[in-house]
Amino acid sequence: MPATSSITAASTKANIMATNIDSWVLITGASSGFGEEFARQYAAKGHPLILVARRLDRLQALAAALQQEWGTRVIVEQADLSDVAAVHALHASLRERAIKVEILINNAGHGLQGTFLDTPMQSALDMLQLDIASLTVMTRLFGEDMRARGHGKILLVASMLAYFGVENMAVYGAAKAYVLRLGDALHREFKRDGVTVTSLCPGMSDTGFAQAAKQKITWGLKLLMMKPPPVVRAGIRALHAGRVSVVPGFNNKAAVAMVWATPRWLHQALFARVMNS
Predict the structure, then answer these.
(1) What local confidence, expressed as pLDDT, does residue 10 receive?
(2) In the prediction, which pLDDT does 222 show?
(3) For all residues of the chain together, what is the average pLDDT?
(4) Which of 54, 56, 112, 217 sits at a 20 to 30 Å CA gap from 29?
């Protein structure tokens, strides 16, 4: 019986690999956090991967692990996507190699916590360059390719903060509001061309983002904290179901629902307290 089960599992894995053999998934910010988890989950589904980030050593280690576990084809691309020229170079390089991206996971992003006037101007502008400008260019370039083929999927990683204006994370929240509203509009525009656009709006997650953003982990945020796997699963399910957006986690959904159910002054004040004390 165990031998039969093993053969069945191997057969199922082989069938998955065969089905998705040409469905390349491009994941930005793939060296850690959500990006790394997207790579693991899509590898398990049999998709070949294009992993993009600045940290080459992390990408190579992840690629080796995925190839060993799943036999996944993996292309590693070291790039600083905060430079729009690097986005164009990445797109051109893949096109020259006739690699067609079927699924784009626009995950690369950066955050900062601090008062607006005390945050260095260049730090805020660098964040906007990556979170808004580069994401927009990635979506435009690969979206054009998908439209020409008549199919494809794009996931934009926004944030639950897209629904709130939160003190001490003003620029980041505003940037993610742009991502969410861009996704809302493109969901309808791209649908006419057979391309799905979905926005993922995670809340506080155990990805290392908070440390990089110098974000204070308050007691309220600890209550909302989620691990990456269920967040990524929710994003993949929503994307492949053709949904416009998704907020993973019951507590996060409840927080977003509060936006529509309470006056702005109340939920803004409440969430500012959760984020900062």
Answers:
(1) 47
(2) 60
(3) 87
(4) 217
Range of the domain at 83: 2-276
- Per-residue burial over 13-46, b if 16 or more Cβ lie within 10 Å, else e, is eeeebeebeebbbbbbbbbbbbbbbbbbbbbebb
**What is the number of structural domains in the chain?**
1
What confidence tens digit (pLDDT) does each residue in 115-131 have?
Answer: 999 999 999 999 999 99
Catalytic positions, written as ranges: 172
Query: What integer pLDDT is reported at residue 226 of this predicted model?
Result: 87
From 183, 169, 30, select the one nearest 112 (Cα to Cα).
Answer: 169
Q: What is the pTM of this model?
A: 0.86
Neighbours of 1 (CB within 10 A): 5
- Rounded CA separation 134/202 (Å): 20
Amino acid at 203: G
Question: How far apart (Å, rounded) are the C-alpha atoms in residues 218 and 226?
Answer: 14
* CATH number, residue 84: 3.40.50.720
- What's the confidence (pLDDT) of residue 6? 44
Q: Whole-angstrom Cα distance, residue 141 to residue 129?
A: 16
Q: Which residues pair with 50 in a beta bridge?
A: 26, 75
Using CA atoms, how far apart are residues 192 and 185, in angstroms rounded to an integer? Answer: 12
Nearest to 107 by CA among 186, 188, 31, 220: 31
Q: Which of 219, 239, 51 has its CA nearest to residue 156?
A: 239
Q: What is the SS3 assignment for 172?
A: helix
